[in-house]
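Re: the 748-residue chain
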Amino acid sequence: MYGIAASGLVVTYTTSGIFNFAHGAIAMLGAFLYWQVRFDWGWPAPLALLAVLGIAAPLLGAVLHIGIMRGLRGTAEVTRIVVPVSVMLGFLALSRWIWNPSPRERRVLSKFFGSTETVSIAGVNITYHELIALALAVVIALSLRYLFFRTRPGVAMRAVVDDPALLELNGGRPERLATMAWALGAVLAALAGILITPISGGALSADALTLLVINAFAAAMFGRLRSLPRTFLGAAVLGLSINYVFAYFPADRWTWVSNFRVSMPMILLFAVLIVLPQDRLRGATVLRSRERFLLPSMRTAVIGAVALVVVMYLLREILSDTAIISLSFGMTLAIIALSLVLLTGYAGEINMAAVSFGAIGTILVYHYGVSGSGFDARTTLLGYVVAGIGCALVGALVSLPALRLRGLYLALATLAFGVFVTNMVLREIGARVLPIFHTEFSIFPAGTLSVPKPKFGPFDFNAMPTFLMFTTLLFAALGVGLIAFRHSNYGRRVAALKDSPAAAATLGMNVVKLKLLVFMLSAAIAGVGGALMSAQLGSVNIDRFDIFISISLLMLTVVGGIGYVSGALFGGILLGVAFGGLSDTFVKLGTDHASLDGLFEFLKDFVTVLPATIGITMGKNPSGVVHDIVTSFRAMARAKPVLIGAGVLELLLYVLRRADVINNWYLLVLSFMVLLLLPVVAQALMPEAFVPEGEERKDEDDVPPEFIGIDRPFTLADRDHLDQALGLHGNGGKLKVSAGQAAAEVEL
């Protein structure tokens, strides 16, 4: 099963250069769709297989490539990872929408020809289903090998990712070939989902089946996403290892065996990533990525931090208790997302397990940072310091063997770590006797941790409004600190490491030290943020640290703008507040308007798919929402009277709300309308403020000077600016060029 699933990954990556994180979700959809037509609608098995594998799966793969994946060319590595991740989350939400995961509705796939039809081979009874799976794996392996190395379309598919332009010059059609490869990969994924579910047993589960196929990532990496024979060899090693652990480890004495068996694929994935040779250090890519992140000045950062605190204080005075609780939760997620801004936005490294570090921070605070008992229990400053230091050390342990990994390899390594924490560490709920200290210790007692609110000296943050202001102040301070770090000498080195590791190493920078420092700082921030999230919730279980929450937070932070501190705020608020608030709103509207209950039920379900839908659009806007907002409002910088008028109008709306003339919904809608109409009104009232002339044109244009003429045409304003910079303007319009200036012009 792992070989079939991993071969589909290799096919799509070999032909498009995009690692399909949605591969497991495609397998899950294939299994659910097969159950629908075969068992719910009663179609014959051959007809059901034809419908799923011959029509639905290839169509899904082709639509994915044409509609989404081919738009990722020229984007950064993080965007090429986040978009497939968004597709995965979207498919998961879609499956829950269509097939209700209620325990009362058990959906079971039975084996081909039933479980009783077996063949005895060397005294071992093998079902026909397992024999069919084994035969299909062999046929698929041989067929793919022949396709890629013995046929013209197969060789052309391999050439698509190497040099699509050269392939096109030789008569090939890269887009058509890549679409065919994605269709084939989707068929293999769906086939794996249909075959593996009856063997693994149990009812169909969207999350479990997706993770089950994600386990095949280890086999795909064993072949380094290139070699199909090594991929199938890795699949054999993976499958046999899991069964050997199940058969020969003494489960009666080693109570952790079941958790270890579930974690084996991720352990092997991490080991494969570390052991196998990786690509050499690379310089900057030939094609400049389409991401653009503007670094704010320290003055702007401080003003933004103060504005955030003031706005949050004003909101605190008018929000209900439920809204304050939701907003506090969103701010703790935003603090965790700040770790992604540092690691991914500034350093270009990818962490798909930020919330897993938050789980470690929670465990440390629970065991070493709680004072008092009952209602008087509080978490101490020392506990959060321990959480930060402990997570930094764990981050170092995770990153040290992975320091030579980059991009996709590092993303997979952190994904493996996150799944390992979920399946192995957090499931250690029973007490164990430590061998050295001879005392009982439980990492996650009874599967639930109660974490009280913090109290630092005389400052008690137990009340939720006070806790909201504390998390806001902490976010603002960390945000300003990150921007100061980016402005520092060390921050510029980190930016150079992101642009070109090879150039950074050539200039004498210690690349290992840089990556280690950034990873440790990022892990510390995530650990403290996770501990605060647990304190806000009061009591947390394993589900609060699920790997899909980490992936969702990464996705929404990238959507907001991974290179901006405000992108972290966007991701945290959206994940922790906005989507839940929308869902609750539609539920309430459905209750209040019974005649429209069907419409509001549809909208409530659509909200579950909305986050992934937003993430999928990253191919068209890789810089994020915050970048668009920043660039649009920079154009209004000279329209100060309009901005002042908008501020006065917002203040008036707030006063009306405090006087109970309008409610929070009217305040929200009217404020949104003010922000939406502000650029239109500014252009209508002060059109002269939007005329790009001379130096102003340069300031408002985010195209670097060396790419003017490539990313956009030259203008007269560009020529004038160039002449001014070189000192070529003389009296009376005549040029006066010294020898030094002429030499400088020639060199330029």
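Confidence is low (pLDDT under 50) at residues 280-287, 433-438, 693-700, 730-748.
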